[in-house]
């Protein structure tokens, strides 16, 4: 059986139109890296670019680099590089701050854009914790009430009291994909604003923010966008909302004339309005370089490979692993699956440590979930087969 699946993996790799992307990353064949949904791998050309930023732009040009090296405009320039990956026209995405900070900006701004008589903020009950914590604080500050709702029940839960809904596009734990077009439409029918967290979908599948008329969105860049540890996040504000977007963090770099340094705040137009303070240039320019790996790659091709990889991994797990030893938490239907496979397993902490020891790097979400992230730009079908084979050996 394992020979047949290994042959099948070789055939799938030979036919893979994205196979050539792997060499763009600093990866070694000894390791199967299935943790790109936590920290994406390093694109091989990034260290030289970062060295140039440090030595020449900072070391030699110093303060001149804000203008001459394009530092000042980096947040919107890099936002425009991310925009096509999330289905947004240029001018609506700004890069900076952490995802958590952008969740705060987006939720408070959504409440301020909504009908003020509405009293509730609906929050994905299965959310990655930071979104829930921040939304709770945003609700207290704006005098609203949090209503936690499973995204699968959201359509019936939003109504005339809903000001805004904050939903994760893909569940960080189970890999369940939530139906962004239909949920956004339901939120709009209720007269509320839709705020999406794209951390686990951007770079793994098409998002279609403009097409589906999403109001606001946030996402990190260190997972499928490979920006590096702690690389800055992004904020999308649909063009139709930009004029009324009222940031709860109106720092000086979002001012219409920041160097006037006047006491009165006057917001800039466009995506700039989502900025707060001085951009974190070293991380930001590492991210900008990392985005080069997307040149000529379409999100549709990435999605097709992601589904093929996760299908194949599940097929290998089913063939190799003794029945009943793991339970797949990730939906089988393609329409409900992101780019990871989550397996529940009784002795998950021991199993994940043993897997990492044997060169198969996934991660553990306590108490009992083994997570395997499939980054289509650098994970191969041979990797998927090997991961399942090593998992099986670890479980026996
Ligand atoms: C859905 C989601 N939102 C937010 C975050 C993290 O936010 P931050 O970038 O502020 O650490 C993560 C992962 O860390 C996440 O998975
Ligand atoms: N952002 C992380 C970090 O700084 C350290 C360790 C892990 C992370 C993560 O991204 C966790 C991730 N959001 C998750 O889905 O679990």
From TrEMBL:
It is an enzyme of class 3 (hydrolase). It catalyses: L-kynurenine + H2O = anthranilate + L-alanine + H(+); 3-hydroxy-L-kynurenine + H2O = 3-hydroxyanthranilate + L-alanine + H(+). It holds the Pfam family KYNU_C. Pyridoxal 5'-phosphate binds at residues 99-100, 128-131, 197, 200, 222, 252, 278. The keyword Hydrolase applies. The modification N6-(pyridoxal phosphate)lysine is found at residue 223. Its cofactor is pyridoxal 5'-phosphate. It comes from the Bacteria. Gene3D superfamilies: Aspartate Aminotransferase, domain 1 (3.90.1150.10), Type I PLP-dependent aspartate aminotransferase-like (Major domain) (3.40.640.10). SUPFAM superfamilies: PLP-dependent transferases. GO terms for molecular function: kynureninase activity. Pathway: Cofactor biosynthesis; NAD(+) biosynthesis; quinolinate from L-kynurenine: step 2/3; Amino-acid degradation; L-kynurenine degradation; L-alanine and anthranilate from L-kynurenine: step 1/1. Keywords: Hydrolase, Pyridine nucleotide biosynthesis, Pyridoxal phosphate. Its EC number is 3.7.1.3. InterPro entries: Kynureninase, PyrdxlP-dep_Trfase, PyrdxlP-dep_Trfase_major, PyrdxlP-dep_Trfase_small. Catalyzes the cleavage of L-kynurenine (L-Kyn) and L-3-hydroxykynurenine (L-3OHKyn) into anthranilic acid (AA) and 3-hydroxyanthranilic acid (3-OHAA), respectively. HAMAP family: Kynureninase. Belongs to the kynureninase family. Homodimer. This is Kynureninase. It comes from Streptomyces chengmaiensis. The lineage of its organism: Bacteria, Bacillati, Actinomycetota, Actinomycetes, Kitasatosporales. The gene is kynU.
